């Protein structure tokens, strides 16, 4: 197999920046363009300049990546070992065999030591990052299996059927969040335009992940973002003030990820979809996330029992809340029942109208509400699997997994679940789409099963 990739070593960021600026209209003219036209103009200029200055080069694909602990010293050892082996096979002399065995033993010991040193330093560097530490252990304990004979169309058909089956199982209901609530004294009617410095911080602080929808590598865009700042500022602010998300920012490339390394990789049911979004679209989302999160926090509109997608919270806080509730109940001589709930395809089955109604109840209106409505609607995606890509498909439900705003919107969508649970006298705690119900009761209570059943029935209706 031959791989084609851009030769970034020969590319000067200053040359790229100059080429992009020369192909763009003036900053003043650009600021008067519509969000759609401005985004397509900027992306086309980025792509054309990058493709011209950094054409694709070809190289043969490796059957397996080189070992990261293999340094120049080990390569020299390996060369000497192979030379000794060739000499012995040619002469068949005992002395040459002994020399070969000695070099083989030395090389094996050196590789083991280098491998141990490599992973020790990797564990040390990841000691404060549980996510990286777990990924390192997982790569050692669960080596990736060979890719199964699946296609992108297999996945796209499976993902769509799964969502359709779940939605068809719901009872028919109106697309509203429920009965009208008392008007809130607070309101968010628009998102404020950001200063160039704020835009610069958003661009440079983002993780430089690159997906096929990006016209240039994200790290390179961060490097030249200072030169493009007037254009980036105009584009993001025009979207915020117009309450409109450019169509090109509503496309996703979906990557199927195996849920657990121990599952059968040939079964499409064992995969979950993760949306890969362009770097600039996520930058725009971050511009909204900061203002939306600030509004919700200042007005105490977030569910206090939700540990997912919240600053200062994590799986650890969720675990502590549940274990502390159980410990307190035991200290008070109460028995406890713990029920663990998980919503299937939770992000993919979000009803847009119900979500938008919920946002209205939270005081979000005007251009701010219009922006989120634009963000949710008119989206499309393609599934990419190995070397195949499916045809574009429209998204009529759900919030994209892998997005910046999706998790927060999902937590607002499910906020009303808490009142359903509390109405039955049960306590709860959530992490994303996982909900833990906790019911503590005197051992003599003979209505426990009935109360739990009634709560679960109302949750099912919800």
From TrEMBL:
CDD domains: RT_nLTR_like
Domain (Reverse transcriptase) ranges: 238-462
Transmembrane regions listed in the UniProt entry: none
Coiled coil: none
InterPro entries: DNA/RNA_pol_sf, RT_dom
Database matches in PROSITE patterns: RT_POL
Name under which the protein is recorded: Reverse transcriptase domain-containing protein
Organism classification: Eukaryota, Metazoa, Chordata, Craniata, Vertebrata
């Amino acid at each position: 197999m031959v791989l084609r990739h851009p030769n970034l070593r020969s590319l000067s960021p200053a040359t790229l920046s100059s080429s992009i600026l020369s192909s763009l209209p003036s900053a003043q003219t650009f600021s008067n363009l519509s969000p759609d036209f401005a985004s397509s103009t900027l992306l086309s200029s980025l792509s054309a300049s990058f493709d011209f200055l950094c054409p694709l080069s070809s190289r043969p694909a490796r059957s397996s990546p080189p070992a990261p602990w293999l340094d120049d010293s080990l390569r020299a050892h390996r060369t000497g070992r192979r030379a000794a082996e060739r000499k012995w096979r040619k002469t068949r002399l005992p002395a040459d065999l002994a020399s070969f065995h000695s070099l083989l033993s030395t090389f094996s010991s050196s590789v083991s030591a280098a491998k141990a040193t490599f992973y020790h330093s990797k564990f040390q560097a990841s000691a404060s990052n549980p996510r990286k530490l777990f990924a390192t252990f997982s790569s050692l304990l669960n080596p990736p299996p060979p890719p199964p004979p699946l296609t992108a169309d297999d996945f796209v058909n499976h993902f769509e059927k799964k969502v359709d089956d779940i939605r068809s199982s719901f009872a028919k209901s109106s697309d509203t969040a429920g009965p009208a609530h008392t008007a809130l004294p607070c309101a968010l009617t628009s998102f404020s335009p950001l200063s160039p410095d704020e835009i610069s911080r958003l661009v440079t602080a983002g993780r430089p992940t690159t997906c096929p929808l990006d016209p240039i590598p994200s790290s390179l865009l961060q490097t030249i973002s200072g030169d493009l700042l007037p254009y980036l500022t105009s584009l993001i602010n025009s979207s915020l003030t117009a309450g409109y998300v450019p169509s090109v920012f509503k496309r996703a490339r979906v990557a199927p990820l195996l849920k657990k390394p121990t599952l059968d990789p040939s079964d499409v049911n064992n995969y979950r979809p993760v949306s890969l979004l362009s770097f600039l679209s996520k930058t725009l989302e971050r511009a909204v996330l900061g203002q939306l999160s600030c509004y919700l926090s200042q007005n105490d509109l977030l569910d206090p029992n939700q540990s997912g997608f919240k600053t200062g919270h994590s799986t650890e806080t969720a675990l502590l809340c549940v274990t502390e509730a159980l410990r307190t109940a035991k200290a008070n001589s109460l028995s406890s029942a713990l029920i663990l709930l998980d919503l299937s395809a939770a992000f993919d089955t979000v009803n847009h109208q119900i979500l938008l109604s919920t946002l209205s109840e939270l005081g979000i209106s005007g251009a701010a509400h219009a922006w989120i409505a634009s963000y949710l609607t008119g989206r499309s995606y393609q599934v990419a699997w190995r070397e195949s890509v499916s045809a574009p498909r429209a998204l009529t439900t759900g919030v994209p997994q892998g997005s910046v705003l999706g998790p927060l919107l999902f937590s607002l969508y499910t906020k009303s679940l808490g009142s359903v649970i509390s109405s039955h006298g049960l306590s709860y705690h959530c992490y994303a789409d996982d909900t833990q119900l906790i019911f503590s009761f005197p051992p003599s209570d003979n209505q426990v099963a009935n109360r739990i059943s009634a709560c679960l029935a109302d949750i099912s209706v919800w």
